[in-house]
Design goal:
Olfact_rcpt, 3% strand, mainly alpha, Rhopdopsin 7-helix transmembrane proteins, globular
Length: 317
């Protein structure tokens, strides 16, 4: 192909979910409500952990990070999606597209590493409870959190750089709801084997490696739980991990499905649905899972609501 056709595209057009106006308006209303619930739920979790001293533990320190990642990821995707539902021309500038890819890919990587860190925290809590405070000290927790954020950000920076150095020729229609890496790479008018290999490698490093650490942690946890003689003790140990395990299944399942084999992966519609799952459902469900399945969080909610009720009563009198 001649170099004259290998031009740089200055903007892209996102095809989105549907071109039907009525459907787009309905989706706008649905996703607007979902996004508000997501933001409110995650910020309430962060506020609750901040206010209740009983939640000042490593587990909830990592949960705070997870909530910040979730709300940031949703904010990277959903507002632009809402604007495009009501826009006639669903245009996104090159710089905005690159920024969206960087933040969404980075935050996704951070979440996978963070879930592995949380699995290690649960492993220590169940398998070595007497030394939990000594092992999971503040310095280690901070370093593990920083490692999660740095590793995801560096990986995203590399992928964003090698993706947007590809010549797109005249291709500017992205068959997706956002500037997702696989959808953007498909626009290139040159061989993208290197990008596909890079995606595979990063999937192994930032997806499969943390996933294997999570599996190893839970093998050890389950083995320890089965050795507990009392039924009550086993239930208590299991509930310690139930919320995290539910989130792990939600987050890792579809990511492995879509990213491990990018050259023969799912269809365009499946990719869009998976992206919606990560951008809307997962960030909304995570605080609910930790609130509904965790006795400490439910107790903190009850305490906070009781204090608010008492305050309102005093103001009323």
């Amino acid at each position: 192909m001649g170099t004259e056709n290998q031009t740089w595209v200055r903007e892209f057009i996102l095809l989105g979910l549907s071109s039907d106006w009525d459907i787009q308006v309905s989706l706008f209303v649905l996703f607007s409500i979902t996004y508000m619930v997501t933001v409110l739920g995650n910020f309430l979790i962060v506020l609750l952990i901040r206010l209740d001293s009983r939640l000042h533990t490593p587990m909830y320190f990592f949960l705070t990070n997870l909530s910040l990642v979730d709300v940031s990821y949703a904010t990277t995707i959903v507002p632009q999606l809402l604007v495009h539902f009501l826009a006639e021309h669903k245009v996104i500038p090159l710089v905005s597209c690159a920024a969206q890819l960087f933040f969404s890919l980075g935050l996704g990587g951070i979440e996978f590493v963070l879930l592995a860190v949380m699995a290690y925290d649960r492993y220590v809590a169940v398998c070595d409870p007497l030394r939990y405070v000594v092992i999971m000290h503040g310095g280690l927790c901070t370093r593990l959190a920083i490692t999660s954020w740095v590793s995801g950000s560096v990986n995203s920076l590399v992928h964003t750089a090698i993706t947007f150095q590809l010549p797109m020729c005249s291709n500017k229609f992205i068959d997706h709801i956002s500037c997702e890496i696989l959808a953007v790479v498909r626009l290139a008018c040159v061989d993208t084997s290197f990008n596909e290999i890079a995606t595979m490698v990063s999937s192994i490093v930032l997806l499969m490696s943390p996933f294997c650490l999570v599996l190893l942690s839970y093998v050890k946890i389950i083995s320890t739980i089965l050795k507990i003689r009392s039924t009550e003790g086993r239930k208590k140990a299991f509930h310690t991990c139930a919320s995290h395990l539910t989130v792990v299944i939600l987050c890792y399942g579809m990511a492995i499905f879509i990213y491990i084999q990018p050259s023969s992966g799912p269809s365009g519609l499946q990719e869009k649905l998976i992206s919606l799952f990560y951008a809307i459902l997962t960030p909304m469900l995570n605080p609910m899972i930790y609130s509904l399945r965790n006795k400490e969080v439910k107790g903190a909610w009850q305490k906070l609501l009781g204090q608010l009720s008492e305050l309102m009563s005093k103001l009323g009198t």
